[in-house]
Structures are given as C-alpha cells and as structure tokens.
Design goal:
mainly alpha; 0% strand; globular
Length: 435
C-alpha cells in the first residue's frame, strides 16, 4: 500500500473532513434542506407534506448507497483508484451543490432541488468510502486512533465555523450582516455557493497530498464480477475472522443511536426543556465544540487502550446521561446533561472508524468501509422508529429520549459480543484473499 504518515499529510487528509461539513451541516442538516422544505415547497400542490417528499427522496438515496457503496469501494481498491475516486465523487458533489444556487423560492423548483440534493447525498457517500479507506494510508498502528479522532474533530470544528459564518453573514435578521437580498431565497442560494467553495478549497490538500494506492493485479473491477467477489469475500471473512462482520452489525446499530442524538436534540431542547430558537443555535455550536474536543481526547485513549473501551464507555455513559435527562426539567438541567451527552458522540464515532481501520484486510479497506456505510444505512430507521414509538406510546416528546437510549443500549450490548482483540489486518488479508 502507498502510505504517507507524516504530520503534514495527516493534516491534509483531515482537511477533507473539515470541508465536508459544508455538505453535512449546511446543506443537509441545518440550512439548505430547511429552505427546500419550508420555503421552496411551501405551496407544493397536493396534501402530502413537503417533509414527507423530502424524506422519501433521501430514503431512495439511502437505498442506492446501501446497494452500491461496498462495490464502489471495492472497484476503487482493485483499480488502484482510491484517490481518483475521492476526487471524482467530491467534485460531482460540489457541482450539485453549485446547482442548488439556481433553486428559486418557488414550488416549481422543489423537485429539481430535492433531486439534486438526493443525488449529492449518494455521491458524497461514495467519496466518503474512499476517504475513510485512506485512514490506513495516513496513520500507523500506533496512532490510528489519534488520526481518526483528529479527522472527526476537524469535521465538527469546520461545521461550527461555517454555520456561524452563514448565520451571521447570510441569515440573521434580514439577509445577515452583509445585507443580502432575500427575494427568491437569494441569501440561502448564496449559502449553497459558499458551501461549495468551502468544500472545494479544503478538499484540495487531501487531493494533492494523500498518495494513490497501487492497482491489484489480476483483479476484475467490473460491476458483476465485483458483486460476485464481494459476496464470496464476505463468506470467507465470516469463516476467517467473524469479529469484522459482528462489528459491522454492532456499529450500524449504535451509530444510528448517535445520529439520533443530533437529529432529535433540537426538537427536544425546544419542546421538552424550554430553550428558545436562539438558545438552540448556541447549544448546537457548543455541542459541536464538546464533541470535537471529545474526539481529540479519545484518540489518545484509543491508541493507548484500543478502540473497544472508548466505544463501550462512551455508549454506557451516553445511556446513563439519557436516563438522567428523562427525570429533569428546564434549560438549567438540559445544558450540562445535553452537552455531556454530546461529549461522547465524537469519541464513539472516531473509535468506530479506527476499529475498522485496524481490522480491515490490507488492500480491502475501500470495500470494508463501503460495508461500514451500507450496514449503517440498513438500520438508519431504528432511531426515528424508536423515537416515534415511544412518543406515541407515552404521548410526550420526553419519552423519545428513552427510544434513543434504547438504540444506544442495544448497540452497546451487541458490540459487547465482538471479540476483544482485533486481528492484525495482514493476517486477515492472507486468510480472506480470494484467488
């Protein structure tokens, strides 16, 4: 494998994480998706809520990702095109972000905007498969936890900075401090352009610094052959080292619980604990800061003790904090307990990525991280379903906290059955390579 593990390369690699917050935080989560649903689609014909159509489009994107992500990763590995794949899919994602500038505040633009965002969600995940796979190229067995944690924290900090820039400069008041026009959603459309430029600028160091991997000889990278090899290798991996398969199942469950913390945190803050809209924004910034700091600190623990205790302690403490939140009221309690909950999200995410980087067979990192994303997509319904069931059964949003805690607890229990010591990647590769 072509590797480069010096500090400059690590920083260059993590720069993609910093830049990718432009898509995750701005376009999908906090700003642009809200514009599409609440403004562009406000007068959409029919009785179906625009949020339903938006969710359906993103669900279709999720299915496409689940089906194709592991094969995309495997083909990039086989052709020695991991960096090329990252560059290509990132640029396509950025082009689609630029395309959102043309989505005016008119119902006729709702479907073009939603379709572009859904396609961008697919291309972004394809890029992320190759980016995650590069972790082994920019780290050593002694510092993979710190490198992974550093990348996660960069993503959080990048999101914080860009969200603040967007809110202060483009959104607050009427067109932000820049006094931008708001007709036809112009200020939000300019946010899309800013986000695209942000992503491109901070992705360039990764494109230029992280080396390409060599092609694998005698490997057919066609789609049909890739699927056949993929299923064959999964069977071989199950017999040779089941910990990887068990880990993929466990991480899919607890990562969905982690996603639920941020997905429903703002709703709970307002409806249960009485935070104002302005306070929610401040809490979101603070939550990302503590999650980033937690990722950095956990990276050192990961390299010293391994990723397993980081994941187990993070999940256990999150369940305990979630239970405590069930019995308290008011902002004074929500702030410390909510931030404590977020403190452990980053470490669990970073340690999960480093765990797979440690056990992935050499030369199969793209494929393994493709499966990592696919398994996560396969159970992405769990937290929303648990939240909905608990709130419906008990008639209060507060009960949704128990639903999220349940998903985290199940993930922790399943992860407890994953063998303690990761196998050495080279050993697994020798046992799972298909001739």
């Amino acid at each position: 494998m072509s590797a480069r593990t010096d500090r400059a390369t690590v920083v260059s690699w993590a720069s993609w994480d910093w830049g990718s917050a432009a898509f995750n935080a701005v376009m999908v989560t906090f700003i642009y998706s809200v514009y599409l649903v609440e403004s562009v689609g406000e007068d959409l014909p029919g009785d179906t809520p625009t949020s339903t159509w938006f969710s359906a489009a993103m669900a279709v994107a999720g299915v496409v990702i689940a089906v194709l992500a592991p094969v995309q990763g495997r083909r990039a590995d086989a052709k020695g095109a991991r960096r090329k794949s990252l560059i290509a899919w990132t640029l396509v994602t950025i082009a689609l972000m630029v395309g959102q500038f043309f989505v005016r505040d008119d119902a006729s633009w709702f479907w073009p905007g939603v379709i572009m965002l859904a396609v961008a969600a697919v291309t972004f995940e394809f890029a992320e498969v190759s980016y995650f796979a590069q972790l082994r190229q920019v780290s050593t067995p002694d510092n993979v936890g710190r490198v992974s944690g550093f990348g996660w924290s960069a993503g959080y900090f990048g999101g914080i900075f860009l969200l603040l820039i967007c809110y202060v400069g483009f959104i607050s008041g009427e067109g932000g401090t820049l006094g931008l026009p708001t007709d036809d959603g112009m200020n939000i459309r300019l946010v899309a352009l800013l986000s695209a430029g942000w992503f491109l600028i901070f992705a360039l160091p990764t494109f230029l610094r992280v080396p390409e991997i060599p092609a694998q000889p005698n490997e057919d990278s066609g789609y049909a052959q890739s699927y056949r090899r993929l299923f064959s290798e999964i069977r071989e991996l199950w017999h040779a080292d089941r910990r990887t398969i068990k880990f993929l199942v466990a991480q899919a469950i607890f990562r969905d619980g982690l996603a639920g913390v941020f997905s429903f945190g703002a709703i709970l803050a307002v409806t249960v604990y009485g935070l104002s809209a302005a306070d929610v924004l401040l809490f979101g910034v603070a939550a990302n800061v503590v999650a980033a700091l937690g990722s950095l600190a956990a990276g050192f623990i990961d390299d010293r003790l391994g990723p397993r205790p980081v994941i187990m302690w993070s999940l256990g403490l999150m369940v305990a904090v979630a239970v405590a939140l069930l019995f308290v009221d008011g902002p004074a309690w929500f702030w410390p307990l909510g931030l404590a909950l977020c403190l452990f999200v980053g470490p669990a995410q970073a340690a999960s990525r480093s765990f797979l980087a440690r056990v992935a067979p050499e030369g199969r990192e793209g494929q393994m991280f493709g499966l990592y994303i696919t398994t996560g997509r396969a159970v992405s319904w769990m937290s929303p379903a648990a939240f909905a069931i608990f709130t419906w059964a008990f008639g209060t949003d507060r009960a949704g906290i128990a639903g999220i805690a349940l998903v985290l607890g199940i993930g922790m229990i399943v992860f407890a059955f994953v063998p303690r010591e990761p196998a050495r990647p080279k050993d697994v590769a020798e046992r799972t390579r298909v001739n």
